[in-house]
Request: fold
Amino acid sequence: MAEGDQGFRHSGTGMRGGRRTFLTAAAAAVALANRPTRAQAFPDRPLRFVVPYAPGGSTDTSSRIVAEKLAQILGQPMVVENKAGGGTIIGTEHVARAKPDGYTLLLSPAALIANAAFGVKVPYDIDKDLVPVIGFVDLAVLLAATNDAPFKSVAELIAYARAEPNRTIPYASAGVGSLTHLWGEYVKARMKLPLEHVGYKGSAEALKDVMAGHVPLFSDVLVPTATAIRAGKVRGLAVATKERVSLLPDVPTVGEAGLSGTECTIPFGVSVPAGTPPEIVLRLNSAFNQALGDPVIRQKLTDLGFLPVGGAPRAYSEVVAGEIAKWRQVITESNIPAPN
Reply:
């Protein structure tokens, strides 16, 4: 990473110094933005927004919604490119190795957090190879149950779990090492519940078994499981947010349901290659903030189940650092093995 770049700074004792570095870089970028620079001519050609997921999913759709608005704001096309594979590693590496000129952006996946928390070896270093632009959207985590489960609320789940000392309750997630798996283990430890994880290869496969009654509990994200809840195919027990979500207004928050302190959302952001000029990072940050602040765009994202974020680059960097530290502690305390 070039001197003055602000990476994610997720490693322990380096946080304080990293924040000072960011503040210095941000101040310099503001000064540069106040005089004629290349940022005033940027962009002068189409931009590429790399999404490390297959086309057609909700995350891809959210990117396209915002990209269309960004094209209007920046005056150049914003082309969404899907580079799926390797658990988002392929798309992330593609951007990490791209020319640092602001024309190649990454929809930063939540897998960045899980991989760093587990210490998974990847072909890039998020501290050295990527620079945060903005927090993009958050996706709420939820707890759902099969319709024929012997509990219809969190209170009933807790009572059922504690009724017999040797009872274990299986719960499904999208896979071993996923953030929804880690959240399930966090709830298990915090509430002292006898939960047993069953990992699947993706949410769709897990949801199918939960709907069929093969696994009684499901730790997942709001999209697309909220659709199954609304259709009455599974029961929503709690959403891990501080306020109820519009997609599931009748499902209580974890605080209301009796799981206070287990709030959790999955953060997605936007990053560019390290070495991208600070004034261009600020230009992109401003454009994304404008797009995410547009009432029409916000409503479209909310209707999909996302929580629009926005803010300064530093805010997203600090969220990532905090999430990595939190889940690393959960992994250590619950002795969770790294995914294969």
Notes: The two ends are 29 Å apart (CA to CA). The mean pLDDT is 89.
